[in-house]
Amino acid sequence: ETSELDKNDINSSPQREKWCGHEFLYKFQGFWFTKTYLEATKKVLETFKPLPGDVILASFPKTGTTWLKAILHSIIHPSPRHENHPLTLNHPHQLIRSLETNLYIEKWTELGGTGSTKTPEFPAVKDPKKARILATHLPYQILGDILSFSDCKIVYVTRNPKDTLVSLWHFVQKSSSAEKDPWEVEAAVDQFCRGVVPFGPYYDHVLAYWEQSLNRPGNVHFLTYEELKENPKFHVRKLGEFLRCPFDQSEDGEEKIEEIVKMCSFESLSSQQVNKSNELPGVFPLPYSSFFRKGEVGDHKNYLEDKMIAKIDGITRKKFSRQWFYV
Ligand code: A3P
User: Fold this and answer.
1) Which parts of the sequence belong to the Sulfotransferase domain (predicted)?
2) Per-domain residue ranges for the chain?
3) Which CATH number describes the domain made up of 36-320?
4) pLDDT band at 305 (very low <50, low <70, confident <90, very high)
């Protein structure tokens, strides 16, 4: 059965390239998508309208999305530590749904798949005093018109490109299709450098949100995985201010921040039973446990050869041309 997308875009567009595990990536508006994500992206563009109070967590894959989901949820829906804490009962991806993955691919499959003309609904605002939090990997170049139209708040997290790539490489290796056709490190470096990875190019993705954070600092908050690791309490406080859920300066405020940092740490989250599950969530091909691997800064040194590092650094220097940006 051929979907609308096959007919209109894929066959007529030669811009596709083989990725790992017999999968192809397709170029759409300057970015690369798997076929399923491309279809979901188009649905998002057709139908998503953010509300003024929404909080959008935007990120390139493998840059700290899961961690930030846990932190944002804890800031906006504070809960004392007990056995029924939301992060004990749910994987962060269950607490904060992703526009293109959970809201579209999963719902849409339920509604009858790619031939379906029905559109999944976005979650309703349950408590008008609380923000609705949604996540996305879509680049600003594609989602920006929709996002800037409303007064929503965007939190963007990024990470060292070499660690991001190594994290992605490990993640992809875990899929069953990669077993038959592994994604070799050389190919991964080459494709990452050319931008041919899901939601890539990484550099264009980061730069567009970075620019927005400079132009509209009240609406777009930009932070890095590394600075969050380095000084989590400081950044959780800053996030609280940005999201209009400030922590007070008293001991009580400090304790609340410490509690969030502890609860959302790699050690704490990765040891929760719910996050160790090997069940496949919905249509996603990998189990929730695969979102927790090592959670460290600089792990690329264990996997990339010097010449690969030099190649990525060369591009990073050119694209980012800012001292603090990862070279
Ligand atoms: P590694 O593969 O380097 O370990 P994403 O959530 O965007 O998919 O990113 C996944 C990466 O974030 C993985 O990196 C994962 O281990 C790490 N990660 C997940 N939870 C984390 C946490 N609470 N603190 C720090 N890193 C975390």
Assistant:
1) 53-321
2) 36-320
3) 3.40.50.300
4) very high
